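Could you please review the protein record set out just below?
***
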Amino acid sequence: MKNLTKLTLTAALASLAAVSGTAQSIGSACGCPNVSVRTTVNLSTLADANGNLPVGATTLTCNNLYVLNSKIYVPDGGDLYVEPGTVVKCNDNAGVNANALIVTRGGQIWANGSESCPIIFTSSADPLDGSYSVTNRGKWGGLILLGRAYNNVRNADASVSVTGTDGVGLIEGLAGGDSRHFYGMPIGQEMNDDNSGILRYVSLRHGGELLGTNNEINGLTMGSVGHGTTIEYVEVTSNLDDAFEFFGGTVNASHLVAMHCDDDYIDWDQGFSGKLQFIYGLQGPDNSGGSLNQGDNGFELDSDDAATNNGLRSTGVIYNATVISRTGSITPVDEAIEAKERTQGTIVNSVFAGFRSGLNLASNVTGFWQGGQFNVKNCTFQACTNPLRINGVNTTSGTDWDKFTLTDGNVSIASGLIDNVYAMSLTNNTVTDRVNPVPAAGTATTTLTPPVDGFFSGAKYRGAFEPGAEPWTSGWTLASQLGTDISAAAGCPGDLNRDGLINATDFSLFVGAFGGNCF
């Protein structure tokens, strides 16, 4: 049973988030005017008749309210600068003409927001006050980055027949016949350090427009993006397809948030070999079936959709994720980690809660897992009905189970590390029972520390958030505005371990610190 103090606090915070967050003051900390008085500018007026921005620099300033009213392309040699606090509202244009912002090969975007002045892309119908339902998905296309790094698409695998060139693919969600929709480079010409720019403190909301049957645009789509690109503190909320999808490439990314999306939260494919750290995913309530269901797999990891490609495998590395499955009145049907189609790679120090399966291994990945080319280590699977599933068979004993638990240090628990039970109104976003993805201080320990390699932070804990500390989602995310998780109560002075309760644990922390000073 939930503590009454938590329920009362949750309801109060939810009501506050629903009525007080007009959000018209977005960017005020960096001098931006109230959103309601910004000058409206259609992005098409900055581009040519084909949607191309000029070669050279184009700057979006926060004194304007921009409207994405067509497909807009940052061309080869073009630089799109987006000031902190800028808001881009995106028109709904269903079908193949869905509006999207596409950074083509050789183009760059410099969207360098800040915690106090995030950059927001959202539906034109979003009043930005937290009341626009999280079930509003597919209201515009999405943000697409196309680079020149490696991928494993090959004509022999029927992957690139539309381009006719090995190593050059047509990105998902866009039409063929337009080279602006291509990613990658011919074999031998790849640029793995390619730089598509910066995305920092960027929130992408209500995208994933449906172009056709089973053909939507991801929240943030990355095709062959190189590791010269900076991607950190990026949120995807209420997308109709995947939140983040990596088609090949070498890009590294950290501090990613995915909420209320209708497909996978992290999806890699086609030889992706980048590094990811600090990932937070929340599916939300499931509404007992039907069109309002939220989510699919936490991570869906492939090397090649056709499962026949003999090129290089996906070898991505993930540390410190926390992904919470939908909760509601039906049995969970999603997988925390869906490993298939010959993927390799590594997932370490992560927490998954509420899924049907923890690690779900397809037959063509089982050998890689047993041989150490695909690794899942020191992860916690909480309230996952089947912690380990191999070739469609639930496994709870024997050699494979011993490897999963004893050798690789994974843990299966019913509850207790985080609070993954969640409830909200899907009509006005009022949260009635929030999650707490932050473990209590002193818990979520691990024996594995990320490598010190210039990218990974040496976090010595499991999950996306430091136990007992204020989460890095506070202040800039829609999650924080809606009060979906503990970040909404980060300022509660008596809750010293930030678990949503003021109790004996907090008192013991206070006693231990009593008599110290703040110098």
Notes: Residues 4-20 form the longest helix (17 residues). The longest strand covers residues 197-205. DSSP finds five helices and 34 strands in the chain.
